[in-house]
Amino acid sequence: MKTSKGTCRFPLPGNNAKQPPMKDDDLVQKANQIAAFFAPYPEDEAVKGVANHLAMFWDPRMRKQLLAIAAKAKGLDPLVRRALDDPAVAVR
Amino acid sequence: MTVTREKDFGTPARTGDTSVTLQVDGHEVRVPVGTSVMRAAEEAGIAIPKLCSTDKLEPFGSCRLCLVEIEGQKGTPSSCTTPVREGMIVETQTEKLRRLRRGVMELYISDHPLDCLTCSANGDCELQDAAGEVGLREVRYGYEGTYHPGTEVDASNPYFQYDPTKCIVCSRCVRACAEVQGTFALTIGARGFESKVTAGMDEDFMSSECVSCGACVQACPTATLMEKSIVEMGQPTRVVETTCAYCGVGCSFRAELQGDEVVRMVPSKEGGANAGHSCVKGRFAWGYATHKDRVTSPLIRERITDDWREVSWDEAIDFTVKWFKDIRARHGTGALGAVTSSRCTNEEVWVIQKMVRAAFGNNNVDTCARVCHSPTGYGLKQTFGTSAGTQDFRSVEYADAVMVIGANPTDAHPVFASRMKKRLREGAELIVVDPRRIDLVETPHVRAAHHLQLRPGTNVAVINALAHVVVTEGLVDEAFVASRCEGESFERWKAFISQPMNAPEELEKASGVPASEIRAAARLYAGAGNAAIYYGLGVTEHSQGSTMVMGLANLAMATGNLGRDGVGVNPLRGQNNVQGSCDMGSFPHELPGYRHVSDDGVRASFEADWGVDLLAEPGLRIPNMFAAALDGSFKGFFIQGEDFAQSDPDIQNVEAALRAMDCVVVQDLFLNETAKYAHVFLPGASFLEKDGTFINAERRINRVRPVMKPVAGLSEWETVARIAQGLGYDMVYESAAEIMDEIARLTPTFAGVSFEKLDREGSVQWPCNDAAPHGTPIMHVDRFVRGKGQFMLTQYVPTDERTNRKFPLLLTTGRILTQYNVGTQTRRTQNEVWLDEDVLEIHPHDAEVRGIADGALVLLASRKGDISLHAKITDRVPQGVVYTTFHFPQTGTNVVTTELSDWATNCPEYKVTAVQVALTNRRSDWQDAHEDEQRDVPLPLAGE
Ligand code: SF4
Ligand code: SF4
Ligand code: SF4
Ligand code: FES
């Protein structure tokens, strides 16, 4: 993990946690709710809005899990799918 | 020596730009126009004897003790009712006046018992003082006045008594109840010698509509209305100025003491938030602080099924550190986290978020604002640029229209409600948006112009419909929008909100509010001149909580209702320090001062000061912590003064999460519900033991001063600092003041704050810095914190929680005046006489079709769980909606609520749960199990 003073002496939270922190369905539901808020915006802006929201407010382990399940997750809002391609969402 | 009273100027201060100069007893004095002669004299240091006047009430002119002579004016006018004039020459001490005053006093005393030495007011009686001042030496009419025969002491109120024999019928109590509190519970009954103060319809105080605010007791110049604590203990001998620890109004109090023992709490006239008023909680319900249930020694246990073991502080801290280190080694840094409490001081909260960031090494710190006002933080930051209400409380005095949304101020923010009611009585218009008919809709001399009785969960539909009317009927304040807001965001919003889907006629289908009412309310709000929004958890605790907050901000910006007195968007914050705990960075994504953890510059300033690297990634929020606990990646939890196992939604899920943890540390006053799942219990300090600051809903930083040492021997911040040290981070402070210095050093909006300044100025409202050294009562005056205001699109999205045949009713929750939240404190006071159980309000029609009679035991079931409680049939709630409170753990209201939450902040949707209600003859399984557990809980050994 990079910080302004170099490499953090702590490992990334949850890096060595064995299990995911949330149920897949709950994660999809929460992500879809975010998409529903941004839906009235022009699509590119909406995608950016969802991506920024995930990056700013979701703990890395939740983002990681969402990224991992996205491909096979049923009912995931297309805005979320597109947002997941944004590098901001990736766990650095 | 008894303590001195606060100086009483006799009549209220007047403000205004024009002043007049007059002479009082040869002294020149200059005061604003409209000031009374009495007040002018007091300002010149000249006291005029008085009985019926006091500076919290408008003058009444009934006692005739305050007579003066005025050059060129006939007779002896009463100084309290005579306004000053330019060049007036006043004499307050002449032989004629002395004679007249003695005559008046003689009449009073002839009708008053002369048991002064054994009277509870001895040493604090204005009648005694006045008799002394006028030099009363004899009473020509004898002392055999009948003292209002046939009257007995009314001791029905648990906190104060009424002894009519001592009444001088000055009617200060009557006027205090009307003018200050706005309840109008008292009248003067009968006439002449028979006249006496009467509560309600000649009832006792408890049976009347009295809400026990204490204003009449404070106004009473004699022992007629008197705190029972004074009757029992006698007069106080010292005073400490401090702040109430209940709600977000943040009333200032004088804690009046004998040694370390509180004998009475009196609201302070200098209090910026309360200006001398109080409610039953702060005024009277402080007994919990010394309740026998207080745990005063640290407790530990290996497993939550073990008995607690009382240990030393060293052992408890070592035990905690060992566990936390072990968890970190086995499960990684991210497995630890903490939650701060909005009941604690800023200084106590600051050290916890610092411990998490610097010693745990992550951002897993959250606060109970998560479950109340986190959407306020998000919504106001997006639109205005900062997470706080825009006004001071005083501002309501300039409002022409007030819109109260999802808040019940007379119960939850009583002292502010009194201030608001005063303005409403003066003629400001009121719009109430609430599914339930709260008291404010119709209260003495106040009636809402519109009550928009919406279906729970449809706030955004209502706010969009209101905004639609503003935009499509040409009610936008174009000049304000053009100069103060982002043009592009406005144009986009205008196009969005004008769409037919946002028209009141369309949204009526969802909200149930007639379009005509919406249109009328929108016109009223937009055309009032100064229109102010006040809102509560009925706005935030929804799936669309954050959207709704942005909707409120949009409406205020579009109508230009920001940046001056009488307007604004004002969250009525729940807890005493919820504003502060948010300001102090108890968020997994924000450092203190609402700055995102990914901001390199901000992080660098903290890293330089704290000497550690900080993580740039957000941590877990409370609901994520529970989810992570259940899935095994979150194992060690420090919980400051928070009772998740009662307060959070879907309790059974919370309980399972807490059970799954390796080490739960609870810091609290009492072994609360959450402590059942704890391995370490660290005794906390009550507000009477705390040294620090609270920040109220108007961003006011108030001092909390200790009246006694921490009963457990260690302050909360010291405990936390020692745990941090054990974990290898060097955290050392000498005092709470030093912590505030660090807060000021690292948080730009607090740069000018110090204990020294607060002690000098009383209180300041942040931002307080070089640009605003005395604080900022009103925000966004010339520009928004973010520069230009940003309109956000707020599409109405119905909640996933839906009614159906099985769960046809909607449950919404709230709280009442005399109990506070989960009741940990108020349940340990005599406030129990007003309510000792949670009841379910149900509409007569819904009750009838279910065969439910008033008071019947009913089962309240949702998709999540069920509980039993007693029904109260009332048309306060509309058909299809039921309502209850969550003050009593045995009820388990939150067994029923769901895990749904706000899209942006995860604030739980407490306000909407689909339920069914049916008659029952037994408690629910959860309630049975809860009671069994209650019996099994090993009691603490501490102090008993
Ligand atoms: S305690 Fe308050 S509400 Fe009750 S009678 Fe006195 S002033 Fe009125
Ligand atoms: S109860 Fe006290 S305040 Fe009220 S009329 Fe009597 S003396 Fe005055
Ligand atoms: S209004 Fe709030 S802060 Fe004021 S006394 Fe009541 S509970 Fe305390
Ligand atoms: S104090 Fe002025 S008439 Fe009573």
Flag low-confidence runs of chain A.
1-20
Approximate shape of chain B: globular
Helix/strand order of chain A, N-terminal first: EEHHHH
Q: Termini of chain B, distance in Å?
A: 35 Å
Strand content of chain B: 15-25%
Task: Categorize the overall geometry of chain A.
Answer: globular
| Mean residue pLDDT of chain A | 77
* Helical coverage of chain B, percent range: 25-40%
Bound molecules: iron/sulfur cluster, FE2/S2 (inorganic) cluster
How many separate structural domains of chain A? Answer: 1
Q: Give the count of helical stretches of chain A.
A: 4
Question: Tell me about the biggest sheet of chain B?
Answer: 7 strands, mixed
Biggest sheet overview of chain A: 2 strands, antiparallel
Précis, in short:
Chain A is mostly helical. Chain A contains four helices and two strands; from the N terminus they run ββαααα.
If you had to describe this structure to a student in words, what would you say it looks like?
The complex is a heterodimer of chains A (92) and B (944). Chain A is mainly α and 92 residues long. Chain A has one domain. Chain A contains four helices and two strands, in the order ββαααα. Chain A has a two-stranded antiparallel ribbon with strand order 1-2. Chain A is globular and about 30 Å long. Chain B has 944 residues and is an alpha/beta fold. Chain B has a seven-stranded mixed beta sheet with strand order 13-12-27-26-25-14-15. In chain B, strands 32-34-33-36-31-35 form a six-stranded mixed beta sheet. Chain B has a five-stranded parallel beta sheet with strand order 20-17-16-21-22. In chain B, a hairpin with an 8-residue loop joins β12 (299-300) and β13. The longest helix of chain B has 19 residues, at 313-331. Residues 935-944 of chain B have low confidence and may be disordered. Chains A and B meet through β1, β2, α1, α2 and α3 of A and α21 and α22 of B. Bound molecules: iron/sulfur cluster (SF4) (3 copies) and FE2/S2 (inorganic) cluster.
